[in-house]
């Protein structure tokens, strides 16, 4: 079993108004990931996600392969685990 990790990720590109948060919540639920996702005023999307690194990578790949989403760049930072459950959409920044 993979070790759990938590990552804080900023996604840049065509990531708002394209179902990004909806798909993130759906896929995170399928993969058993925890955390949240929200739009930022600068047009980026911010996410904190916790779970197996392979599952996090799988979710990011899933998002990259959606028709209208185009991830130009990502800033990823490792965080300490929070042990939360569930993945949800937060209020926009």
UniProtKB/TrEMBL annotation:
Protein origin, superkingdom: Bacteria
Cross-referenced Gene3D superfamilies: 3.30.70.100
EC number: 3.6.1.7
SUPFAM superfamilies, per database record: Acylphosphatase/BLUF domain-like (SSF54975)
Pfam families: Acylphosphatase (PF00708)
Catalytic activity: an acyl phosphate + H2O = a carboxylate + phosphate + H(+)
Annotated ranges, domain Acylphosphatase-like: 6-93
Active site: 21, 39
Keyword Hydrolase assigned: yes
Sample GO molecular function, one term: acylphosphatase activity
InterPro entries xrefs: Acylphosphatase (IPR020456), Acylphosphatase-like_dom (IPR001792), Acylphosphatase-like_dom_sf (IPR036046), Acylphosphatase_CS (IPR017968)
Alphabetical keyword list: Hydrolase
Family label: Belongs to the acylphosphatase family.
Protein name (database record): acylphosphatase
The organism of origin for this protein: Oliverpabstia intestinalis
């Amino acid at each position: 079993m993979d070790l759990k990790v938590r990552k804080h990720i900023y996604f840049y590109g065509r990531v708002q108004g394209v179902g990004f948060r909806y798909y993130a919540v759906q896929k995170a639920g399928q993969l058993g990931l925890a955390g949240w996702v929200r739009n930022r005023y600068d047009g980026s999307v911010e996410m904190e996600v916790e779970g197996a690194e392979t599952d996090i990578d799988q979710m990011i790949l899933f998002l990259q392969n959606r028709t209208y989403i185009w991830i130009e760049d990502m800033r990823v930072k490792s965080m300490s685990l929070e042990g939360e459950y569930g993945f949800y959409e937060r209020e926009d920044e």
